[in-house]
TrEMBL record:
InterPro entries hit by this protein: Endo/exonu/phosph_ase_sf (IPR036691), Endo/exonuclease/phosphatase (IPR005135)
Domain Endonuclease/exonuclease/phosphatase residue range list: 250-475
Residue runs in coiled coils: none
Bias kind Low complexity: ranges: 211-224
Matches recorded under SUPFAM superfamilies: DNase I-like
Biased composition (Pro residues): 199-210
UniProtKB keywords: Endonuclease, Hydrolase, Nuclease
Species annotation: Kitasatospora paracochleata
Domain of life (superkingdom): Bacteria
Protein's UniProt name: Endonuclease/exonuclease/phosphatase family metal-dependent hydrolase
Entry keyword Hydrolase: yes
Segments for region (Disordered): 189-238
Amino acid sequence: METDQLLDRARDLWCHLAGAPAVFGPPGPESVVVAPASGLCPPGWSGVVVLGGELLATAPTEAAARCLRQALGQLPSTDWTDPARLAAHLPLGDALGPAALAYVAASDFRPAPAPAQAAADGRAVEELAVDGDGVTALLATVDPADADECGLDGITSPAFAVRDPAGRVVAAAGYRRWPRDTAHLSVLTAPSSRSGAPARPPPAAWPPPWDSANSAPSSASRSDPPAPDARPPADAGRGGRRIAAMLTVATWNVLHRVHAENWGSHVLDRWPQEPERIAAVSARVAATTEQVVALQEVSGDQLASLREALPEGRTIRALRYPRVPEPRRVPNRLADRTEHLVLVLDRTAEVVAAEAFADAPGKGLLAVRVDDVLVVATHVATGDRRPGQLARLAQVVAEAGAEQAVLLGDFNADRATVAAELGEGYRVAELPPGAGPTRPRDIGAAKSQWIDHVVVRGLDSRGALVEDVRGLSDHNPVRAVVGR
């Protein structure tokens, strides 16, 4: 692949991970953006990536972004990821990196030798489970920091390994799937073998020498005073290790027109013409940068619009409820008033379960497997039916054998209630102090205004926030980053 094409693909990947509309360029408002859920750095931090002499940076607040733009604008491009140089212009509280990241096109990988030739050369490659004895023993030969840095524990492929004459695994490599058809490579060689022939990782997983034009220095920094949650996760690692195991997600109840009319929603005042609102909803979903978006109360008209509006590379998985909403106050205005639970994904995904709840034919769950994570979209009923439906969600996760799961949806209950009724091991992402409501209501209303949630099991969540859609629906979207 030509260098320019590879550079463009790498930039597209990082723009996607930024979590907000952004482009590479000189320091400015389009390249240094506000992105509280950025995948470039831990929550509450600022992150910088440089590719081909241009930068992309994210900051948690507008004030931090302004300071970062000003500081970067005073430095030559060679110093943009140098914490020491940045510290002369910014009140840095802490820093991670920089790390030199590199890229190679699939067409430039060396082919693996034929099995017979590999065996004759003593370079036979085995496919092993990453949690098997061989790879576990290899990881034990290095200190914990090196074991974490190599990233083998986060791969989703098998571990491609070679052994020494004594049968010990002395080198292994593998990859984890990232967005934008990118594979993140992880490699480890036992210290005792790094000067010998086995030190070279398996050819099928080892790129040729890197072209310096394709390297991408990156760093993350935190300015004082830090936000209360601005500490990096314990497993954030060095040089972006955290990013390799993260998934950006969102959930939004987009409001079915028939429900809006039956309940006299205020949304009707702002959007009297449903085709215009449907188009606006589709445009907003199409512009999202999250890898997974769960949508509730999707009408048949809205679903058709989404299929037309989504960019290439996005896929839809949908559950059609057996109940079709019936107009009770005004005549139906939809061509297709069926109702759907929808997942919008940046990749294909295996559907594991799709069902309406037994006691609520207009509520349900849709579960898919995204790499090694079970993603469940849901819409849960209120009142006495809720505990049983939450129990069913937990049952589906258990039946799928999922060690890592994320539940996205309208739970019609506050954070504490959802956590308690789902049971042990489930954690609901915590919104920052002062976050806007996910379901705005009149002042004094008895029901909670925070009923849409990102729930994790076997994962951490960070950067959760509520996006104000200014009355496009009666709910606001919730966004977050989940990972290990």
